[in-house]
Amino acid sequence: MTPWQRKLERWIQRACELEVLSPKPGNVCPGQDFEDASADDFLKSAAAIAPVLASSQPTLGLSILKAVQATRNVVSHNTNLGIILLIAPLARVPEDRSLIGDISDVLAGTTVEDSRLVYEAIRLASPGGLGNAESQDVSDLPTETLAACMQLAADRDLIARQYVTGFRDVLTTGVDLLKDAQQNVACPKTQVTTLALRLLSMFPDSLIQRRCGEAEAITVQGKAQEIIDAGWPDSTAGQSLYARFDHYLREDGHHRNPGTTADMVAAILFAAQREGWYEIDAL
Questions:
Q1: Distance of alpha carbon 175 from alpha carbon 159, whole angstroms
Q2: In 10 A of CB 100, how many CB atoms?
């Protein structure tokens, strides 16, 4: 492994670790395990995928599939498919190029074979609430490039939208939100909580939308905005609203888990390290 690949490995693992170790509304974190997933599962998954995504796999699709396979070797359920789909292309941007300037080249180079491998990875991960698509359904053999397949899902899935927009929500909106949190919040874990809240207030969570419907996702979006408007984390009112919001998301067997938001957080944390302005100390 080259020195650059070792850096990528460290950044990927620490981004995933800080994401799960930070309290975020409705998500797994220490002391807030789900019945079928623990914080330790996510930490094991982070260690498993980091060297795979940092290595020089021949294609993007193979990198994604091997990362999902590595996860399955350490946990028996899906902990990180969204994270893998987001970080894998970002990690393939050459060392001497910027993410925001050159991720488009990685995405433009995707092939039908990438789609086939990614579809295999998705079926192996078996994420919840996928449903069926009219065209290029994940249960079928794809006939379009990965970028084209993501285009078909971009209107209903925030992760797919990144492949279509050059990762704009990660590299522009998300990075700006993290910079703002870093300037205004001292604790790194609370910075991550703030980032998650802000993302939830701006984008209906795709996992909630798939599981509970668009109306519920928009309701969650509004509740996140109310917490921000109430002055969280510095106000008592904001803290009280946050506690009720967290409880609301965890009701009914964590059915309202904002998992896509957590995936976006991990990708933003990776990008911030990769671009050289955000450091995550050993956790």
A1: 16
A2: 17
* CA 116 vs CA 60, 135, 254: distances in Å: 11, 14, 31
DSSP 122-182: HHHH--TT----SSS-TTSPP-S-HHHHHHHHTTT-HHHHHHHHTSHIIIIIIHHHHHHHH
Tokens of 107: 């995405």
Contact indicator for 73, 119 with CB cutoff of 8 Å: no
Q: How far from chain centre, in Å, is Cα 36?
A: 19
Residue type at position 207: L
CA dihedral 205, 153, 129, 85 (to 10 degrees): -80
- 38-89 per-position pLDDT tens digit: 999 999 999 999 999 999 899 999 999 999 999 999 999 999 999 999 999 9
DSSP 8-class letter at 93: S
Q: For residue range 16-40, what is the model confidence (pLDDT) as tens digits?
A: 999 999 999 999 999 999 988 999 9
**Six-digit token pair at 139?**
């249960």
Residue 249's SS3 state is: helix
Distance of CA 195 to the CA centre of its chain: 12
Helices (H), the chain: 3-21, 39-54, 60-72, 81-91, 99-108, 112-125, 146-153, 158-165, 168, 175-184, 188-202, 206-212, 214-229, 236-254, 259-274
Q: One-letter amino acid identity for 36?
A: D
**pLDDT-based confidence at residue 228 (cuts at 50, 70, 90):** very high
Structure tokens at 128: 């919840």
